[in-house]
Amino acid sequence: MAYPYRHPAETLVISEHFGNPEARTLKGWEALGGYKPMRTALGLDRAEVVNIVKASGLRGRGGAGFPTGMKWSFMPKKEPGKPHFLVCNADESEPGTFKDRELMRWTPHALIEGCVVGAYAINAEHAYIYVRGEFFEAAQVMARAIEEAYAAGYLGKNVMGSGHDIDITLHIGAGAYICGEETGLLNSLEGRRGEPRVKPPYPAIAGAFRYPTAVNNVESLIAAAHIVHHGADWYKQWGTEKSVGTKLFCVSGHVKRPGNYEVPLGFNFREFIYDVCGGTPSGKPIKAVIPGGSSVPILTADELDIGMDYESMAAAGTMLGCGSVIVMDSGTNVVKQVRRMVDFYAHESCGQCTPCREGTAWASKILKRVERGRGTPDDLDTLLDISDKMSGKTICVLSDAAAAPIVSSIQKFRDDYLALMDAGQLAGAGGR
Amino acid sequence: MSAEPIRAGSEYDPTSWPAAVQNPGFVGDTGEFAGLTEADVRGTAFIGERPADGGHPSVAGTLPYHTATKDPQAPIFHGPYEDRLEKILSRYPDRQAALLPALHLAHEIRGYLSPETQDEVAEKLQLPPAYVRGVATFYTMYNLAPVGKYLIQVCTNISCNLCGGDAVLEAFLKHTGTELGETSANGLWTVIEVECLGACGFPTAVQINEFYYENVRPESVPDVLARLT
Question: What distance in Å separates the CA atoms of residue B50 and residue A293, rounded to the nearest whole number?
Answer without folding.
Answer: 34
